[in-house]
Design a protein that fits this description.
D-aminoacylase_insert_dom_sf, Urease, subunit C, domain 1, TIM Barrel, hydrolase activity, acting on carbon-nitrogen (but not peptide) bonds, in linear amides, alpha/beta, 9-stranded mixed beta sheet, Amidohydrolase 3 domain-containing protein, Metallo-dep_Hydrolases_sf, binds zinc ion
Length: 524
Amino acid sequence: MLDLVIKNGTIVDGTGSQGVLTDLAVKNGEIVELGKLRSYEARVTINAQGLYVCPGFIDIQNHSDSYWTLFDYPKQDSMIAQGITTITVGQCGASLAPLPSIDAIKSVQKWHSLSGVNINWQHFEELLVQIERQELGVNVASLVGHSTLRRGLIGDTVRALTSQEVKMLEKLTTQSLRSGAWGMSMGLAYAHEYNSSISELDSAATLLKERDRLLSVHLRSEGAHILDALDEVLHLAEATRVRMKISHFKLQGANNWPLFPELLSRLEQAYQKGLAVSFDVYPYTTSWTVLYTYLPKWAYEGGREQLIKRLSEPYHRNRILQALLESRKDLSSVKIATTTEAPHLIGRTLLDIAADQGVSPEEAILNILLSTESEVVVFDNNTSEEHLHALLTHPLSMIASNGAGFPANISQHTRNLVHPRCFGSTAQFLSLARNKKILTLEQAIHKVTGRPAEILGLADRGLLKSRMKADLVIFDYESLRDLATFENPYQSPLGIRWVIIGGKLALAEGELTGGAFGRVLRAE
Ligand SMILES: [Zn+2]
């Protein structure tokens, strides 16, 4: 007896090859047959006539851990409802383990307040066990965060690591990789990694190369200094031959847009030289950015407490203000999205807030950071649509949400605005591919299935073939549409009809079943 049969759908297998009209059978959580089934017995049969059947989407850049929603809402409705069956967390330098000291966990507080959270793990394996104990809606793979390790070793101290500390970092990294981390992430733009020495980064990347694990990097700059930032990581890839993915690749700020052709050309040259480089991109021109990163680096050197101290002292505050004014970025349309401390500011632009306060938008930033203790995330529409299309269609790209999973009905419980990518990334991307005719359906599906699986090293997911895990999405391409907006992000897309995780129905006929079929995935 088969567990599940999907009849008469167009099977798009995740490799990029053309779809084929046929059937698919599942038993014990695995795909057991692909092809026309004549006589069979199955517990569940889905008629997929007129629909597409493809591998479950793999979100290779996800923040459900650092936004803490993996614990608050482990079912991750907004991921399932957009067809995502596996998320990869521990991104941008911040993972939730290992915790060589309790300081290490503070790497996530730029995204989410840590007050009241319960942390009963220390090692990477202990974290995975805690995640596993919950009613997990999706599969979870985690990287180990470089910032988490570094901060766990030296706290807020501003300096390069000593050779003994580098050895400790290597030991903790190796332990985490042995416990199933799929690689490491770096967040070079953030306060606690900014002072990493080249040799520190080199030693971490070498460990990854030895075990053939992925390095996922958030570049030191995504604006005026992006070429230097790219060169930095390409040198690292060249020196260590590590497999490297650049996270949420984009070029921010209209002043910097002329750098785009050179940026892509340097990346392509590196690939042509044989470096294993790739990047992920989310399909929106608006970013969801931590507010403090708009300040000059020295202003937040040493972390949050140092920043707050500087903002409170007239001399330093004035220096920061002057630097912001001199940078001549137009910040007036930047909008407050997420903050626990000042909910009345949510949804308002810096221009509005500045007018209320009778100050400039630059000064308003300082006031907001001070009053919220720097836990503020903003929306900033600052990348070009033309560049976005070039990145989405680029042979080196994959599509990822860079968002977090939320419950379907959360809008009643929060004033916070999340980025619509948390609800609609995949539908936004696939409908863009369809409407603008920038990719075939098969090419587009490859960028959310087979390609991220290969880059992450997931051998048993991301493709439809015999013996692969039965993580599947069945959707209506004609009616597929992203409904999540910046004003009302808490809306799941139209057109995703069924989502199957490990052979079980997580979404049936467009409705969440409430089942918790996700597992923690460990690299071996
Ligand atoms: Zn990042």
